[in-house]
């Protein structure tokens, strides 16, 4: 029933529907033809349904071990656990492009479903732009990366999946990350539609922001999951390697963060309009080019799993059309957008502009570090690699002022403000920061970690005092404060929570700079000392797994004689690929991770010794916890009443149909 | 669509800047891709300006217990040695290590820990294996500048008399070793 041919057909159908979705509503919006514009939501939903069908067929082929499908034969195997047969569908180039298209289709359907309060011409244009982008990617999928291609004769068993990808964290990482990347297609489509109409106003800012915030939440979670994955799967004990693939997700995150802040200024004050449109186009452009350039092989990375210059040419053409086309439109139409909303340098707008400048400078630095090597190779014929020292030296000086301004920016009034009254409200936060700096200076070594820890406490304390001040906590009776808290817009609470999340992450980063580790080669029975703990290797044995054999060590961690944790790190050998993966053992009490890795076996069979990596990582979980808190803050602000009811539309209705309601 | 009122030229030029930037980057990528296809461009290959010249003046402190080296030791060579710049923070270096471990019995390897803390470099070698017979530290990266390296890992084949005979700015592969390095080293051994 769900044959690969059906899937291929559904993909082709989706491509045709996307092309129609990209053309007819645009013509309709141009001619003010209501019927043509009205086609947009239906086409978007139809395209999405066709993509769901196509994706279901690919999953079906993987689950039923249909090795006549090349993609399944190359990436699956009979012995693979069912979960990874499903998630393995997007663990390879072809499948991940189909997933990309599916999520883009979902975005179009979501605008069709939730965008009923949009003016019909704007909605038609937004959906049409999404359709045009989708057409390109579905064509890419059909022509150069067909996931349904058959092989004949069909092999009896597949080649299996890259064992590194056989992990629950990574299995769900791509859908979340892609939802973040592709989600920025919606603000992008809004920006293009606004350029076509030649109008950006407060209502536009209000429509764009929830979509950008939603995409940002997913991207935040996706990046955190990727970093967590490299922490506990790769076994290097680190969390961020400034690898091109990691940078490819960080760059749009930085501009996306700038976008969700500058869109507030458009919404509240009708200023920064052109800049916001540019950010919306830029963020999606970075999402697109980052992910796809890694695939073309120009940016080489240990993570990249599909390098093919032939595909690269198609990708580049597509990027040229999408990105080049939108910047052409920008160059043509943006000059005619009227600027508005004057404000003093010291004001909420001023703080948000500063935030944008710092975030975009950070983005420029990361972009430079990532793109410098290939461009130097092209222009000067020299290859070089830019590593962690460059990124550490350039990003931290930009991040620290950002952290400082984050504290009081949300408390500044709009239009014109004075610093003194705001700082006056923050004396408690300032005091706490001072205390934190003293504690940090006693416990942490190095000036930078101390500064970062102080900045982190400053962000958290300032966010808490912002909310406490707004609800008059301790200054009014508790019930009054509670009532005030309930009346406070969720977006304000959400923003404070998201900021506190940044603080939590930064605190984790600062503490992680003090991580201790030890690499030893020892026989069974040895005890090592690290960070005040006694680590004893008590046992190493072989254990069979579903499609691998594992060499598992038992590490007893004691403190003051009492057993704190039993760590069981292992090395897995996958038979079908001759590949081994390390399975890290982590014991966490949320304040620190005890982290053990089993390395190679040396010595004779009678007297074996084992390489062990032992890490003590203070506050490590906070880095990812902070990212979750950030995403939660974003989600909370999405549940704000004003976002839900589509206030601009109601205002418009009541102004045109007064008395009718 | 209504025609917008004509804005000042300066504003127009400013708004066209992103397009120009995107265009330039796009042309660059297109050249890279077409170069990659016809073999004219490889982001991981490089021709060093130091080829067939004596090694630059340098003194590298050792990483205990291993001895460092310097110009004197390199100039005194009678058989070829492969000098490898590496760092614990460099992922390609980690990927290259297994290859170096297989090479160490066929060719002497001297390592230079580039812009690395001694503890980190030592830990890196304990974990991934230490193929080096001598190990120097270039913690400030000054020696790297003199040798003209642009990143890590980079390898130099230094022949007798301390002359740099071959250079690669990419992680070494088994293929490069068997097809280029070992034949060249053999030729340098028997003049």
TrEMBL record, chain A:
GO terms for cellular component: plasma membrane. InterPro entries: CcmF_C (IPR032523), Cyt_c_assembly (IPR002541), Cyt_c_biogenesis (IPR003567), Cyt_c_biogenesis_CcmF (IPR003568). The chain crosses the membrane at residues 6-27, 39-63, 97-114, 126-145, 176-196, 208-230, 250-267, 274-293, 313-332, 353-375, 395-414, 426-442, 448-471, 492-512, 619-638. It is found in: Cell inner membrane. It is a multi-pass membrane protein. GO terms for biological process: cytochrome complex assembly. Belongs to the CcmF/CycK/Ccl1/NrfE/CcsA family. Required for the biogenesis of c-type cytochromes. Possible subunit of a heme lyase. PANTHER family: CYTOCHROME C ASSEMBLY PROTEIN-RELATED, CYTOCHROME C-TYPE BIOGENESIS PROTEIN CCMF. This is Heme lyase CcmF/NrfE family subunit. It comes from Acetobacter vaccinii. The lineage of its organism: Bacteria, Pseudomonadati, Pseudomonadota, Alphaproteobacteria, Acetobacterales.
UniProtKB/TrEMBL annotation, chain B:
GO terms for cellular component: outer membrane-bounded periplasmic space. It comes from the Bacteria. Residues 49-186 form the Thioredoxin domain. It is found in: Cell envelope. This is DsbE family thiol:disulfide interchange protein. Its main location: other. InterPro entries: AhpC/TSA, Periplasmic_diS_OxRdtase_DsbE, Thioredoxin-like_sf, Thioredoxin_domain, Thioredoxin_ResA/DsbE_sf. It comes from Acetobacter vaccinii. Pfam families: AhpC-TSA. GO terms for molecular function: antioxidant activity; disulfide oxidoreductase activity. Keywords: Cytochrome c-type biogenesis, Disulfide bond, Membrane, Redox-active center, Transmembrane, Transmembrane helix. The chain crosses the membrane at residues 12-33. GO terms for biological process: cytochrome complex assembly.
